Amino acid sequence: MIDFAIFEISGHPVLLIDLISSILGLTCVFLAGRNSKYNFWVGYLYTAALFFLFWNRNLYASLLLQPVSLAINILGHFRWTHPKPEEKSSQDDKSLKVSMLSWTERGLCVVALIVVAFVWGWILDRLFPADPHPYLDSVVTVLILMAQLLSALKKWDCWVAWLLVNITQLILHISVGNVFMPIVSALYLINGLWSLSTWMKLYKNKA
Questions:
Q1: How far is the CA of 182 from the CAs of 20, 22, 42, 171, in angstroms?
Q2: Plot region of 92 (φ>0 → left; ψ -120 to 50 → alpha; else → beta)
Q3: Which residues are within 8 A (CB) of 160 and not within 5 positions of it... i.e. 6 or more apart?
């Protein structure tokens, strides 16, 4: 059993599964930010850890989205390692180069985010009435999936989405009195800022 407290921070227990999933998640985004295809192998382990975490805590709304995350991870693994001729990196012809969304595509992403988040929030509100913030939870969840999808397509814009996720989660964790997760969210935020700059350099170098 890995769902037990291993230490406490200011009286708040930190569970082993929380620590494992946090380490895997941070490792995954760190490798992605460094343009390493190995982030996907860590991503598979991360998805499995989250599946166990949500299952053990009866968080079925989040659990239902893990197969979607897994599918996005598989898609990204394939796209990063099987680029079309015009998509090849200038540094490695077996790797997908970083690209950007057009402003039209960014607008469509915003519209899709609003529509899907509203629908998912409406579903959560009816299936899980105990959720105090179904629409806010829905926005964050859909934004995470969008960030994952953009990362799978190796779009620089994914880090903008990740920064929005990180800032929102940081605020949410602090507002409910969590101690450990704000630290993790802050590390995600730092990596997101670093990766935003790193991927811009890769984009300019067509790498």
A1: 16, 11, 22, 8
A2: beta
A3: 196
CB-CB neighbours of 65 under 10 Å: 16
Whether the pTM exceeds 0.85: the reply is yes
The two most distant CA atoms of the chain are separated, in Å, by: 55
Q: CA-CA distance, 198 to 176, in Å (whole number)?
A: 33
Residue 13, H or E segment: strand 12-15
Domain ranges of the chain: 5-83+97-204
pLDDT tens track for 38-47: 999 999 999 9
Could you give the angle at which helices 158-175 and 180-204 cross, rounded to 10 degrees?
170
Q: How far apart, in Å, are the Cα atoms of 87 and each of 60, 135, 159, 203?
A: 38, 37, 20, 12
Two structure tokens written together for 58: 């009866």
Contact 141, 124 (CB under 8 A): no
The residue written with tokens 């899907």 in the block is 116
